[in-house]
């Protein structure tokens, strides 16, 4: 599934769920909100009527005056009003008055006069000096038939002598609730629709931008001349710039020069071994020793050919995610081969070599890379070991790893240089010549060790420098 469609689906799901929960929450609050506002109006009306009716109620002349006729006429009025576009053609308030015992003495509907309402909360609580209100269904089986009742006390010198109750059916409020819900649903649906439209446009724009970048990368990969896509800032612009810089580096001189240095650095070791053997062969020596040096020249020549072929692939060591092969490599045999390849150099400098590696100690990895990495370490140690100095090679098994140590007698490495030894192109001057190497050897060693899942560390110890490598 394309990224743009997945992005839009996630966005649509988020918008849909958000819209549903927000609308559902607001819809649930509309009906209680309207009823709360209506109840507040009923409280004001009931208290107003209590003050208006107080004198006649106190005098006991409510039914003798015009109040029954007035309330009946009030109930028959037709306001013909339009409230926010909704018609109102009848009044919906019911007003009744009870005495101090809860007996109805006046009712605008004319049906409850003489009845005992003392048990209804609007009357019962008001007579006790509390806020009296109730909501009761006129039809027990119809939830929409509930009527709100709010009572207010009639007082005489602070004493409650009666109650005025104003009632209003909730059904009279329903048209306004329905209209508000319809409008809210319409506006909510519109906003969700706009949100989805925005999400669709954003997904289309993102997909289009990524397609342009993909087309550019494919064009570069195919060797075509293509123009880098331009964006107006943001992460896409940074990504396009990074891809263009990567292309420049891959095609530029810096990339080629770096790996030419690597190639020449790796060829230096076998060339030095061949040259040392050739110099020794020019002098007189026993036939057996001469045959050994001729064999060294032959083996190192073959190794040079292998280096040229394999180092072309080593340019990708840093980018490789794993080894091409993983086999058991006898560490002792590998170290002896490396020492034998450097025998001429070791003999000419009269170095003392100490080796303590068990014959059955095995490494797990790619033989060619392991040979090159350990060979680089040995060559680097030889560069800094003075004449008649000491080389000490050892290894031991620690759980599932092998710890390889290479000690060479030398001056201590400066503290500022220790953390930078494996940096690319960083090198210290050699004691004999004062010249620096290409600075690629230890960097190559570190990359090979990391590729094998190991670690490399270099430290100063008493009398020299020690390299420690942990490998599977």
TL;DR of this structure?
The chain is α+β, with helices and mostly antiparallel strands and 472 residues long.
> What is the name of the CATH architecture of the largest domain?
2-Layer Sandwich
Strand content: 15-25%
Ends apart, CA distance between termini: 41 Å
CATH homologous superfamily name of the largest domain?
Histidine kinase-like ATPase, C-terminal domain
CATH-assigned fold name of the largest domain: Heat Shock Protein 90
The number of strands is 14
Q: Which regions have little confidence, pLDDT < 50, spanning 5+ residues? A: none
Please bin the fraction of helical residues. 40-55%
What can be said about the biggest beta sheet?
5 strands, antiparallel
The radius of gyration over CA amounts to: 49 Å
**The CATH class of the largest domain:** Alpha Beta
The overall pLDDT average reads 80
Number of helices: 11
Tertiary shape:
rod-shaped
Helix- and strand-based class?
alpha+beta
EC number: 2.7.13.3
Enzyme class: transferase
Domain Histidine kinase: 262-472
Subcellular location: Membrane
């Amino acid at each position: 599934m394309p990224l743009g469609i997945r992005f839009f689906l996630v966005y649509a799901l988020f918008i849909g769920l958000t819209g549903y929960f927000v609308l559902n929450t607001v819809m649930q609050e509309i009906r209680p909100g309207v009823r709360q506002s209506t109840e507040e109006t009923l409280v004001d009306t009931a208290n107003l009527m209590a003050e208006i009716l107080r004198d006649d109620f106190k005098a006991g002349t409510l039914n003798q005056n015009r109040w029954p006729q007035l309330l009946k006429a009030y109930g028959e009025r037709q306001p013909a009003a339009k409230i926010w576009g909704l018609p109102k053609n009848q009044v919906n308030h019911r007003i009744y008055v009870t005495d101090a015992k809860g007996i109805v003495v006046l009712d605008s509907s004319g049906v409850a006069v003489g009845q005992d309402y003392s048990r209804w909360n609007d009357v019962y609580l008001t007579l006790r000096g509390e806020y009296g209100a109730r909501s009761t269904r006129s039809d027990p089986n119809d939830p929409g038939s509930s009527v709100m009742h709010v009572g207010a006390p009639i007082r005489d010198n602070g004493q409650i002598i009666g109650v005025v109750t104003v009632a209003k059916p909730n059904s009279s409020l329903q048209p306004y609730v329905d209209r508000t819900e319809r409008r809210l649903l319409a506006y909510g649906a519109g906003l969700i629709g706009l949100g989805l439209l925005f999400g669709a446009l954003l997904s289309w724009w993102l997909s289009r931008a990524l397609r342009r970048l993909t087309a550019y990368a494919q064009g570069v990969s195919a060797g075509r001349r293509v123009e880098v896509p331009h964006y107006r800032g943001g992460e896409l612009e940074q990504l396009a710039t990074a891809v263009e810089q990567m292309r420049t580096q891959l095609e530029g001189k810096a990339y080629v020069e770096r790996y030419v240095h690597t190639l020449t650095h790796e060829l230096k070791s076998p060339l030095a071994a061949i040259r040392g053997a050739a110099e020794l062969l020019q002098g007189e020596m026993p036939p057996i020793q001469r045959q050994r040096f001729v064999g060294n020249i032959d083996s190192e020549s073959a190794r040079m050919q292998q280096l040229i072929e394999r180092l072309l692939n080593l340019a990708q060591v840093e980018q490789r995610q794993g080894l091409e092969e993983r086999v058991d490599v006898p560490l002792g045999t590998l170290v002896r081969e490396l020492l034998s390849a450097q025998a001429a150099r070791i003999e000419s400098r009269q170095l003392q070599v100490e080796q303590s590696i068990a014959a059955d100690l095995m490494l797990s990895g790619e033989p060619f890379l392991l040979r090159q990495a350990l060979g680089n370490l040995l060559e680097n140690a030889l560069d800094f070991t003075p004449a008649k100095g000491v080389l000490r090679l050892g290894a031991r098994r620690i759980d599932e790893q092998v710890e390889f140590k290479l000690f060479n007698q030398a001056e201590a490495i400066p503290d500022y240089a220790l953390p930078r030894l494996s940096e690319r192109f960083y090198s210290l001057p050699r004691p004999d010549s004062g010249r620096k190497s290409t600075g690629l050897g230890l960097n190559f060693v570190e990359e090979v060790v990391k590729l094998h899942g190991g670690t490399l560390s270099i430290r100063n110890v008493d009398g020299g420098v020690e390299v420690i490598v942990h490998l599977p």
